[in-house]
Design brief:
By secondary structure, this protein is of the alpha/beta class. It contains 14 helices and 14 strands. Strands 2-8-7-6-5 form a five-stranded mixed β-sheet, with helices on both faces. The protein is globular and about 60 Å long. The termini are far apart. The mean pLDDT is about 95. Bound molecules: pyridoxal-5'-phosphate (PLP). Pyridoxal-5'-phosphate binds near residues 126 and 257.
């Protein structure tokens, strides 16, 4: 008999979590104005709000923490981190920052100016924010199939080369760099193929542009290349990682994702001119160059995390857990962005709550129902998150309306996955009875999802 798959680690420390009653959850929902960001974490049983900074560090990472060098300048922990990054990516210049958006802030301060255009594949919201706040434009060149949630394709995160080339021709001198997000978070944690990264490189070379990878989930992307793309089955994750970064000029990184630390990020590049330019913004915004925004101990833990999470065992355990949850949803017929992404399942609310009009926010309604059902906190990635059009002030109903179930790394067991799937099934079974959604009673002008106040209708 073939042995079943199991985790590549055992558990040394546990953190208790507690269930609540439906009455309690009803009260807490009301108190938080039906916005799950406003819940206290101890009101949540299984927390799938994000996979960012919520993973479990290994014993080796905790041990490294104790060895951190807190020297202001020239910290040994910085050099340990830099050596790992250089070994994995080939980039010689490294600037630590306190998280991914800080890396964007520092690097884009040096590179992006008013009137610029930055093409890429579904820019992440902070990336887009750091481009738009500089009065530049983030131009989405993602493949069209990313929008069809029911289509099974191996690399739905790809850049469409035809759209990219049209942008390079049209905007020419206005383009400071191309940015490729691996994996493509906004499109549902969908990977980008090596072939596509090569096509982007070829176009960049043809038009004399540089390429940045927004690399939060680069290791998960390497896993998908290994398991889905011809010619990579026998390569190690570290070999694939190096081959990916050979096609880039630099990277921004949120270490809270594939670095498996609770806080941290960095910029890395092969170009001295980019490093020199970014330095001038690191020092005033983040800190001196050998710590940026990070403690010595956090850099030490990150060095270990990057090394561990570019090993197949660790990635396979993670991605198979996400795929296990997807297989349960398949069994129950619940629609989500197919195939399952690396870090999350994106449930297609518009295909479930078909009786709730879009003006009443179906994905947010589903998010509330799942919490009400079992104390499980997901996150709306839909019409509320999309904010209003800056000019017309109308809600933007053009994109997808999804409930994201982000799975923290090494945190929950497959039994938790069973609970999540069963809770969602219970909501799914009564989907036709759910006919009303929510209305907004207060919202902030920008990034309203964090603080929006809602009222249930009907
Ligand atoms: C999380 C994330 C960021 C921003 O990183 P923070 O650490 O949250 O600041 C940027 N890009 C992508 C693709 C991300 O997932």
């Amino acid at each position: 008999m073939e042995l079943p798959f199991a985790e590549s680690w055992k558990i040394k420390m546990v953190e208790p979590i507690t269930k609540s009653t439906r009455e309690e959850r009803e009260k807490w929902l009301k108190e938080s104005h039906y916005n799950v960001f406003q819940l206290m974490a101890n009101q949540v049983y299984i927390d799938l709000l994000t996979d960012s900074g919520t993973g479990a560090m290994s014993d080796r990472q905790w041990a490294a923490l104790m060895m951190g060098d807190e020297s202001y300048a020239g910290s040994r922990s910085f050099y340990e981190l830099k050596d790992v990054i250089t070994r994995l990516t080939g980039f010689d210049y490294v600037i630590p920052t306190h998280q991914g958006r800080a890396a964007e802030n520092v690097l884009f301060s040096a590179l992006v100016k008013e009137g610029d255009v930055v093409p890429g594949n579904s820019h992440f919201d902070t990336t887009k924010g750091h481009i738009e706040s500089r009065k530049a434009m983030a131009l989405d060149c993602t493949v069209d199939i990313a929008k069809d949630t029911q289509l099974e394709a191996p690399f739905k995160g790809n850049v469409d080369p035809a759209k990219l080339e049209a942008a390079l021709e049209k905007y020419a001198d206005k383009i400071p760099f191309i940015i490729v997000t691996i994996t493509n978070n906004t499109a549902g944690g969908q990977p980008v193929s090596m072939e596509n990264l090569r096509e982007v490189r070829a176009l960049a070379d043809k038009y004399g542009k540089r390429v940045i990878f927004d690399s939060a989930r680069f290791a998960e992307n390497a896993y998908f290349i290994k398991t889905r793309e011809d010619g990579y089955a026998d390569k190690t994750i570290k070999e694939i990682t190096h081959e990916m970064f050979d096609l880039a000029d630099g990277m921004t990184m949120s270490a809270k994702k594939d670095g498996v630390v609770n806080m941290g990020g960095f910029i890395a590049t092969r170009w001295e001119d980019w490093y020199e330019a970014a330095k001038n913004f690191c020092i005033p915004f983040e800190g001196y160059l050998t710590y940026g925004g990070m403690n010595g101990r956090d850099m030490a833990a990150l060095a270990v995390g990057l090394d561990e999470n570019t090993e197949l065992d660790n990635l396979e355990t993670r991605i198979k857990q996400v795929q296990y949850l997807a297989s349960l949803l398949d069994e129950y017929g619940i629609p989500y962005q197919r195939p399952a992404g690396g870090h999350a399942i994106f449930v297609d609310a518009s295909k479930i709550l078909t009786n709730v009009p879009k003006e009443e926010f179906p994905a947010q309604t589903l998010t509330i129902e799942l919490y009400r059902e079992a104390g499980i906190r997901g996150c709306e990635i839909g019409y509320i998150l999309a904010d209003r059009d800056p000019i017309t002030r109308e809600n933007r109903f053009g994109g997808l309306d999804l409930l994201r179930l982000a799975i923290p790394r090494r945190t929950y067991t497959d039994n938790h996955m069973k609970v999540i799937a069963a809770a969602l099934k219970n909501v799914f079974d009564r989907r036709h009875e759910i006919t009303r959604g929510v209305e907004i009673i207060w919202e902030a002008p920008l990034m309203r999802h964090f603080t929006v106040k809602l009222r249930p209708l009907g």
